[in-house]
Amino acid sequence: MYYKYFVSVTFGLFFGIIFAFKLNFSTEVFILSFIICLLYFVFYKLSKRQYGVYKSKTSLMLSCFALFISLGILIGQYDISKDQIKINNFKEFISQKENLNGRIVNIKSSEVSQQIILNIYDKENNKYYKIKLVTQKFPEYKVGDQVEAIGKIIFDEDLKVLFPDPNQTQKSFNLETKNKLGDVMAEMAFPKIRSTQSIDDDSESINKNQNIFDNFFVSLSNLKSSFIDILKDKLGAQTAALNAGVLLGDGSIFTKDELNNFRISGLSHIIVLSGFNISIIIVCLSILFSSMPLRWRVSFIIITLIFFILFVGPSISIIRSGIMGIILLIANVFGRQYVAKQALFISAFVMMIISPKIALYDVSFHLSFLATFGILYLMPMLQISSVFLSFSKAKNLKNGLPTEKESLFCSLKENIILKNILEIFKTTFAAQVAVLPYTMYTFGKVSTLGIIANVFVIPFVPIIMMFGFLIIIFYLLSYLIFFLSTYFFSILFFKFLLKIFITIFSCLDFIFSQYIFIIAKFIASLSHSQIESYISGYTLFILYFILISFLIFEEKRKRIMI
Asked: Closest Cα to residue 427, out of 226, 254, 269?
């Protein structure tokens, strides 16, 4: 019932935020949108009624659209002014500092370097600032370490000076947008870093005023690192990298060649957490706690989902899928019908309200929304078998018996393996069609064999997730038994049994993981597995305009047929 209103307000908020960030005359657009909102609302109120009900609600939807454009502009302008004030305060703060003392709150490692997010404290203004330290791979640091950094501060405006070559404009843009999304004030390139074991005045202030949430996230990050170490110990670096990606959303231990193979073969989405992983978790928890009352079960699953999102790191795709999953669970509790399309727009709306910058800068947000949009809107149109059968029945009505082709299709539909392969193909194809124009515009490269790679790989991802999860759980249980064996010597047998299970799970996990690596490497090695194709912003707009127009036309055509 309210689906169209959610669509209008979400797109209104999206365009309003973009206008605020991109247009110098956004205030004028705000006034104009507000006037249009009032005019459409008055027109709606003055429109003729039939049996006490308004004939058309188009004017009301347009009024909501214009209203939320205005709201988006206000939110965007507030976010811009808040960031500018924070940047000015930070510049004033560092002008009096020769070195920066802080606490490491995040680390992203690659083969040759580390990107460290350092949280520093301004005791005069009682504020925290984040800066990024780009340094060598070694020595390695841990989240929660107290360090001192000495080097040159680089702001976003300095990136244009560092990358004056037009061919490197995209690189500077990526650095700038990543900093904005991560609330990073500035960068330090290869600074001198030393651990600060002794507590001076600044570090004492940091420890006293450290936000409790930062301490919580530091603990979660260290726990996550411990799990990755368990996987590396039991599976080896390569297999552990895939398990850490599909289970914990961590791709830091992949090599550059492995990441490149996954990207070219169109499989990079499986090494980051998404709605697919959230769906598996919801299904598994629902089965595991099926004996619990509905309200208790749903409450437990929602709490588990929130903790899991915080544990693996609240990336855009997993937050979006998490919100949609929570909406599904709440709908089940209250006995309401779950509308996935409506949930998609609600999740996008909530995320843009919380962090307006993602509407303009976050590529992950755009890709996650478009892929889910394609699955929900385009996939139902790919019911090839049902279309063929309806056409065949209209053409062949001899004695009311099924034709030979109908019988063949029915037998294929009953084949579970072929049915699952067809579902994977349709899902991947629908998602690829929706994200293709944006991928061409943003990256300029397209994977031509991604659909084929997904058909061969996707069925094995839940299996790897299950084995990786069991390895971690059994490993922790073996340590618990070892601790208890000092009091109960007889339970050492269970530790031996757990080791056997861990060995079996590790071997099976290794086999399936190596299969995926082989598929990714083979497809990436083929000629023309990836092609370069750039499109302009105008072409991007035209392609999505055509796609949306086609979807509207199909919806109206279905209503007429019904």
From this structure: 269
- What pLDDT digit, counting tens, does each position of 323-344 carry? 888 888 887 777 777 778 888 8
| Cα gap 99→188, rounded to integer Å | 11
pLDDT for residue 1 is more than 70: no
65: nearest Cα among 39, 46, 27, 47: 39
Please state, in angstroms and rounded to a whole number, the distance separating the CA atoms of residues 227 and 248.
9
Q: Looking at 122-168, list the stretches that DSSP marks H as alpha helix, in order from N- to C-terminal side.
A: 159-162
pLDDT digits (tens, 9 = 90+) for 221-257: 888 888 888 888 888 888 998 988 888 888 778 888 8
* CA–CA dist 265, 267 (Å, integer): 6
pTM here is 0.80
Tens of pLDDT, residue by residue over 160-214, are 444 444 444 344 345 556 556 667 888 888 888 888 764 444 444 444 445 566 6
- 468 Cβ contact list (under 8 Å, min separation 6): 231, 243, 246, 247, 509
Coil, helix or strand at residue 110:
coil
Q: Which of 452, 396, 395, 466 is nearest to 424 (CA)?
A: 452
For residue 118 the two structure tokens come to 């350092």
Pick 73 or 109 by higher pLDDT.
73
User: Residue 269 corresponds to which amino acid?
Assistant: H
Is the predicted pLDDT of residue 433 greater than 50, yes or no?
yes
| CA separation, residue 392 to residues 388, 401, 451 (Å) | 6, 12, 28
CB 338 within 8 A of CB 332: yes
Highest mean pLDDT among 94-98, 423-427, 430-434, 558-562 belongs to: 430-434
CA distances from 77 to 19, 21, 71, 251 (A): 9, 7, 10, 35
Residue owning tokens 């755009």: 366
For 126-153, what is the mean pLDDT? 84
Give the side-chain half-sphere CA count within 13 A for 44.
Answer: 16
Say if residues 442 and 540 touch (Cβ distance below 8 Å). Answer: no
Gap between the Cα atoms of 485 and 326, Å rounded? 41
Nearest to 390 by CA among 403, 379, 399: 403
